[in-house]
Automatic annotation (TrEMBL):
Region (Disordered): 130-153
PANTHER family assigned: LOB DOMAIN-CONTAINING PROTEIN 25 (PTHR31301:SF12), LOB DOMAIN-CONTAINING PROTEIN 4-RELATED (PTHR31301)
Protein name in UniProt: LOB domain-containing protein
InterPro entries: LOB (IPR004883)
Taxon lineage: Eukaryota, Viridiplantae, Streptophyta, Embryophyta, Tracheophyta
Residue stretches making up the LOB domain: 18-119
UniProt source species: Linum trigynum
Length: 180
């Protein structure tokens, strides 16, 4: 039973035969010590294309050589993230996403402050008044959002208007849609 010779002998690493995404893009030979190869696999051609378009291959190479080897993957990933954001938003790039998140933090901090102030006031009112009817009249006075640092003696209440205002900020959802 002479078996036919195997058509393809699997070499030790087929990976080394195919150039990395950077060298393929730049149409050059991918040498064993290629600085790009570990971070730009051939399966992800767009990653290098984006980074090259925004930062330039020589700048990326220089940057990688200035960074310690164990930090290069993080550096490449952040460059790829920044490049993708810049391509999607040529004006603000990833700064657009950062500022949206910063505004969201500020808004949520205000909401937290207001809720905490409301909780304190609610607990205070429950402890000092014996009749619940007083609570109800105070809760329905409405308004008051934004003055939580020095809430007036009466009328501090989140009410319905507060949540309406909060949900009205449609900027974030439109932004996140834009980033994708
Ligand atoms: Zn290469």
């Amino acid at each position: 039973m002479a078996s036919a010779a195997a058509g393809s002998s699997s070499s030790s690493s087929a990976y080394s035969n195919s150039p990395c995404a950077a060298c393929k893009f730049l149409r050059r030979k991918c040498l064993p010590d290629c600085i790009f190869a570990p971070y730009f696999p051939p399966e992800e051609p767009q990653k290098f294309a984006n980074v090259h378009k925004i930062f330039g291959a020589s700048n990326v190479s220089k940057l990688l050589n200035e960074v310690l080897p164990h930090q290069r993957e993080d550096a490449v990933n952040s460059l790829a993230y920044e490049a993708e954001a810049r391509l999607k938003d040529p004006v603000y790039g990833c700064v657009g996403a950062i500022s949206v998140l910063q505004r969201q933090v500020i808004r949520l901090q205000k909401e937290l402050d207001a809720t905490n102030a409301h909780l304190i006031r609610f607990a205070y009112t429950n402890n000092t008044t014996t009749t619940s009817s007083t609570d109800d009249s105070m809760m329905n006075n409405g308004g008051g959002y934004g003055s939580h640092h020095h809430p007036p003696p009466q009328g501090y209440s989140s009410g319905g208007a507060y949540y309406g205002n909060y949900n009205g900020g449609g900027n974030y959802s439109s932004w996140s849609g834009g980033m994708n």
